[in-house]
Amino acid sequence: MRIGVLGAGQLGRMLALAGYPLAKTFVFYDMSGNPSAGLGEVIIDRDGNYLDDFLSRVDRVTYEFEHLPVEVAERLAKEKPVHPCPRALQVCQNREREKTLFGELGIPTPQWKIADSAESLKSAAEALGCPVVAKSNTEGYDGKGQAVLKSPEEAQEAWAAIGHPRLIVEKFVQFKREVSIIAVRAEDGDVAFYPMAENTHHEGILRYSIAPAPGLRKDIQEEAERYIRALLNEMDYVGVLTLELFETEDGLVANEMAPRVHNSGHWTIEGAMTSQFENHIRAVSGHPLGNVEARGLSCMVNIIGEHGEIDRILELPYAHVHLYNKGERPGRKLGHVNILADSYEELVWRVRNCAQFLPGSPEFRSSLTTKG
Amino acid sequence: MRIGVLGAGQLGRMLALAGYPLAKTFVFYDMSGNPSAGLGEVIIDRDGNYLDDFLSRVDRVTYEFEHLPVEVAERLAKEKPVHPCPRALQVCQNREREKTLFGELGIPTPQWKIADSAESLKSAAEALGCPVVAKSNTEGYDGKGQAVLKSPEEAQEAWAAIGHPRLIVEKFVQFKREVSIIAVRAEDGDVAFYPMAENTHHEGILRYSIAPAPGLRKDIQEEAERYIRALLNEMDYVGVLTLELFETEDGLVANEMAPRVHNSGHWTIEGAMTSQFENHIRAVSGHPLGNVEARGLSCMVNIIGEHGEIDRILELPYAHVHLYNKGERPGRKLGHVNILADSYEELVWRVRNCAQFLPGSPEFRSSLTTKG
């Protein structure tokens, strides 16, 4: 079976690496002019002239990023199965639509308001009570197009800094930690849930994901499963879906979802019986889902900006290196390291030992390293 | 780093799948006209006209099969590092040379003699005592070019059936089981040994490999490590080397070696901390070696001739499917399934459960299923 992937970055690369052993082949469709998958066929098509050519070379279509024109996905879906469905793109590209869907399905979110001017941003901040987070309603990711307002007086400055005509303004959530759940839904409606991960961000970029999340309570995992199952079923979704959440004193609050394999699921390559990448390919191809159980404890450490001393990391007997073969650039995701351990204590020690070889890695902080 | 691989079959494919995450890229050089790697660039060159082109596209060279002209490897080695060394090819292509080296290094072998006629085959069978195994001295693999003689009178027929001008005749070894050890040696001489596997053949083709081998005694593992270390150091070898052995009442007896990743090491993909494929790429690229420890217990089940009910196998929560994307043909290796378990009892049950979906799979037999 030939799988067409919209986008040609590291996620597509890892989908392909997981898909070849299932006898899939890959054609990437790149609209950026800068593909990095490094595998399979790549069609570079900035102007959308070769979509038919792409279609003729594939049996099924999926995507590795959600910032692609919905019309493209819809046009493709008329000819070949496109998984996940274009509707998932529509929802994920628009935070207002996403939050509205969350609300309809009973998934808690931070209180939010829409702002379409500096004045309405100020009013929203006043109504919600600062601090608030203002985010461009569309096109934002990895912390871009966002600002935190500590008081309504910062509205003018924040509005100018974000530079977007429509913002969503969210009341700041007092959370214990950031977590995510990754689920996969098959064509026949079967659903499987990975154990949740605890995520640590730094400068808006994910740095560490620990899975299963330390001290994860069964009722919290089940709450997350209920939410993501509702989303999967509502959208008649096929493939991997990620839901980012805040864990608070009062339970989970949804932040956002991603209709794809996700950085907070990279630990599954060695840390779960079946990786998120393999499960996405299984689902998209119409195969049964694979076992999502964890194999021991994992922490994913992102390699950001520069590669550091990779050969020192390769010497660590508990580290698995995954490079994306990309050039160094500040803030760029160049790869990740999966650290395995049998206890969380050992995991902390090992992660710190690894991180020392990655310059610019922030100090490892997690619920394991802070008293709470 | 660009790795050139001589040969473009499933072993090259799995080397590439392990090498991409280490930021390697792959160029395959195929002399068969029938490449199946399905990844990377492939140069098809039956007449040896494009060796320079191949060389210009790679930084280092390795190979996935030992039946390639030594002159080709030697010519390449003048320009770029070739690992393992061409001498390993020379030894492995000639059973007499291989057995002689084993003898020089104190590695026990079956008693053997050379035969270059039906008459000398008969004399050899008489001198060694039947049963004996006669094998073409060169070019044989996967049980091809072999015959068992139950009495010297069968010499004429066996000579004709094998149809090779020079045979090696080996006294039949009374063995408890067939085993193999896989080791890897780095450029700096560092060596690591995987736990031995127990192998079951059927019609000359490997069917099952269990690792770590059940009931493996520490002294037997160490004996095998001593033998393979001697080979690695003698040849100043870089990369993965496999040594197939018989386990007898009196210890180990070497059968043959393969200067490459090996079918009896496919279990390492999920069953070891670092796969044989990754370790070969690490060694060939000059990186430190990865951890060779087992992760639980594994059994590799080969998919031979036809694919069977792959979707049923994909449903098994303990099975990992690895397909080579090749067409069905009797006796052809099409893929393998790695079965994981925490106990050997569970492993036997799971392997049998999996094998029922693979038509033509021989009944699972191993030291675990026979009384001894």
Automatic annotation (TrEMBL), chains A, B:
Q: What does this protein do?
A: Catalyzes the ATP-dependent conversion of 5-aminoimidazole ribonucleotide (AIR) and HCO(3)(-) to N5-carboxyaminoimidazole ribonucleotide (N5-CAIR).
Gene designation: purK
Query: Which species is this record about?
Result: Marinobacter salinisoli
Per its UniProt record, what Pfam families does this chain match? ATP-grasp, PurK_C, RS_preATP-grasp-like
What residues does ATP bind to?
Answer: 95, 135, 140-146, 170-173, 178, 201, 255-256
Q: Which SUPFAM superfamilies match?
A: Glutathione synthetase ATP-binding domain-like, PreATP-grasp domain, Rudiment single hybrid motif
Name the pathway it acts in. Answer: Purine metabolism; IMP biosynthesis via de novo pathway; 5-amino-1-(5-phospho-D-ribosyl)imidazole-4-carboxylate from 5-amino-1-(5-phospho-D-ribosyl)imidazole (N5-CAIR route): step 1/2
Domain (ATP-grasp): residue spans on this chain? 99-285
Answer yes or no on keyword Metal-binding: no
This protein is called what?
Answer: N5-carboxyaminoimidazole ribonucleotide synthase
- Keywords of this protein's UniProt record, alphabetized? ATP-binding, Ligase, Nucleotide-binding, Purine biosynthesis
Q: Which family does it belong to?
A: Belongs to the PurK/PurT family.
